[in-house]
Amino acid sequence: MIPSAAGTLPLDCTVLVSTPENVAFDFRIAGPFSRALALLVDISVIGFCVFVIAFILAFLGAAGVGLLLFLMFVAFWGYGGLMEAFWNGQTLGKKAVGIRVVSDTGLAINAGQAMLRNVLRSADLFPPFFPGAVAMLFGSRFQRLGDLAAGTMVVVDGQRSSPRPPVADGVTERMRGRIPAHFRADTALIDCLAAYVGRRLDLSAARRLELSQILARHFIRSWSLPPKINTDHLLCAIYEHATMDEEHRSARRDRDLEEDPDRSDADVVDYLRTLEDAGYESR
Amino acid sequence: MKVAEHIADRTPEWKKLEADVRWCRGSGKRDPERIAEFARRYRSVCGDLSLAVAMRWPATTTRYLHELVADAHTQLYRAESFKIRRWGRTVLVDVPRRILRDPCTWIAFVVFWGLFGGAMLAGLTRDDFAEAVVGRDTLEKVEDMYAKPMETGLFEDSRTAMTGFYLFNNAGIGLRCFASGIFLGVGSLLTMAFNAIFLGAIFGHMIRSPSSSNFLTFVTAHGPFELTAIVLSGAAGLRLGWAIIDTKGWSRIESLRRTAPRALEIAGVATMLFLFAAYIEGQISPSELPYTFKALTAAVSTALLLGYVVVLGIRARGEPSL
Q: pLDDT tens for residues A134-152?
C-alpha cells in the first residue's frame, strides 16, 4: 500500500499517514511561527558565516571578493536545498527549532523537492504581498507556494518529545476501591482523562487540583465521596479503572475470536470505530 | 496490566528506536544487522501505537508514539538517493528534448528577442528612447564604463571579483525569474520583458554612441550564453505557471507538482549557462585578447547551444515530451 495523506483533523493540524505496516500515524504540522523562527536562525547563520568568510577572504584582495560572491550565491540559493536534501529534511534552523521537511505522502524528501521548495522561496517572499504567507492560510498544512509545488510539508520532529508515562505508584490503589465496580466510562470521558493523565506532570500540584476539580466534582457528588478527596488522584484512578476495563474487554474479544474466527471482521470494524472516535476521518 | 506498567515496560524499546533513528540520520555507514533490528523494532513500535490509540493511552504518550513512528518511518522508507549518472542523463537527454519541444521555450524566445530587437531599433532610431527607458543616470554610467576600451589591463586584478559578481547578480535574477513564474507565468514574462527592453535600449543607444566599438567588443563573447540563459529561465518559469492554467485533467496543485521538477531542471541548466557566461564575462570579455578570439568564443558558444538544444533534443527521441 502506498502511504497516503488520508485525512486531517481541521483544528489539530495533523496529517494522517497509513503505512504498509497497516498502522496509521500522524504528523503534527509545524506552524508558521516556528518556521519563521527557523528561517531567522538560518538567515543569521548564513549572515554570520558570510561575515566570517568575508573577513578571512579580505586578505586575498579582489580574488577574495570574487570567491566570496560565488560562495554567497551558493549560500543564498543552495543552502536550504542542500541541507534539506542531505540532512533528513532539516536545515540548522529547523534542527534548532525541532521541525523537519517531509514529502506530503509522509516519505522523506528527495534532492529535487528540497531544491525546488528553496528556489521558490524567492517567490514566496515576494514583497509586498508575501504570497507564501497568504498561501499558508489556505489549506490545513501551512504549505507555502514552494511546498505546494514540491509536494512537501514541514512537520514537528519527534526527537525531543518523551513518552511521559503516568506514575505507577500505589497512590491510585486506595482510590480505586471508591469507584463503583459497575461504573463504565464512555469514550469521551476516557479521552478527556487520557489527555489529563498525559499532561498532569507538566502542571504544579495546586494547578492539578484546580483542573481536576472541574471534572471530579461530578463523581464526588454522584458517588457521595468525601469532598476533601484528592481529585487529581481520583481522576488517575478513574482513568486506570476505565482503561483496565477496556483491556478486559479486549481480552474477552480475543477469547471470542479464538472460539469463533468469523468475528474477525467485526473486530476490524470495532478498531475503525475506535479510530473514528479518536477523531480520525476514514476516507 | 495497567497502562502505566505497560508504558514503563515498553519505554526502553522506544528509547532504543529513538537511538536507531539518530543512528540512521547520522551515519553514512550501513550495518545490515542493525538495520534489520531497526526494522523489527519499528514494526513492534507500530504495534504499540495501534494499542495506544485503541486503548486510549495518555495523550502525551500517544503523541510521542506518533512522532516516534513518523521519525522511524521517514528513515525506513527513504527517498531515492542522488545519482550522478541519472543526473547526467537528465541534463544531456531529458532537458534538451524538453527545451526543444516545449512551446514555452519558443514563447519565451520570441518574447525576449522580439522585445530586445524592438527596443534596440527604437534606441537606434530615436534619441530619447534609451533615456526614457533606462534613465539619464544609468545611461551616463554605462557610457562612462565603455568610454575607454575595456581591454586595457585595468581590470586585471578584479576579474575574479567581476566573475563572482556576474554570477551572483545574473544567476540570481535568472532564478528569481524562474520562481516568479509560479504566479501563472506573469512574473517570468515581466522579468524577461523588463530585461529585454532594458538591455535592448542600452544596446541601441551604445551602438550609436562614439564608444560603440568598445561596447560591442565587450559584450560579444558572453552574449550567447547569458541571453540564452535568461530565455531558458523565463521558459522554465512559464512552464511552471502554465501547469496551473492547463492542468491536463489533474487538479491545479497536482499539475503544478508534476511539472515543477521538470521546470526546475531547465532552470538548473539556465543557471549553468549563467555560470559559463559569468566566467567568460569576467575572464575573456575584459581581456586584451584580440577581437577575433572573442568573436570565436561567441561563435563556439552559439554552436554549443545549438548543438545542445537542437542536436541532443532531436536525437533524444522515444518517450513523449513533458
A: 888 887 788 999 999 999 9
